[in-house]
Design brief:
The protein is α+β, with helices and mostly antiparallel strands and about 100 residues long. The protein folds into 2 domains: about 45 residues, no CATH class; about 45 residues, Ribosomal Protein L24e, Chain: T. The protein is about 45% helix and about 15% strand. The chain contains 3 helices and 4 strands; from the N terminus they run αββββαα. The strands form 2 sheets. Strands 1-2 form a two-stranded antiparallel sheet.
Length: about 100
């Protein structure tokens, strides 16, 4: 009896895995991409990261400390980098930025 129960559980898991593979193939052929198991297909948008001119770290514009310098918006990873950049004497790189 125990063997039949274990065999039934194994068959259920194998069938479920098989249908997940088939579902993934069908979604791939349609060009859909699901975010998680059982979720509807949705596309995530990528965000262009910007480079901190003081230390070179890439940061998300939404989370960056920003300063407008020479008519251009600059993004910094922290207030420390922003202050270090603003404390520099005028350099050709800073004038271009």
């Amino acid at each position: 009896m125990l063997r039949l129960l274990l065999l039934f559980i194994l068959i259920v898991f194998a069938a479920r895995a098989f249908w997940r593979v088939i579902d993934g193939v069908i979604e791939g052929m349609r060009g859909e991409r699901s975010v998680g198991p059982g979720s509807s297909a949705s596309r995530s948008r990528s965000v262009q990261m910007v480079r901190d001119p003081a230390c070179g770290t890439f940061v998300l514009p939404d989370r960056a400390v920003t300063v407008v310098s020479a008519g251009r918006q600059l993004h910094f990873c922290s207030t420390r980098c922003r202050d270090a950049f603003l404390a520099r004497p005028e350099s050709p790189e800073q004038a271009r930025a």
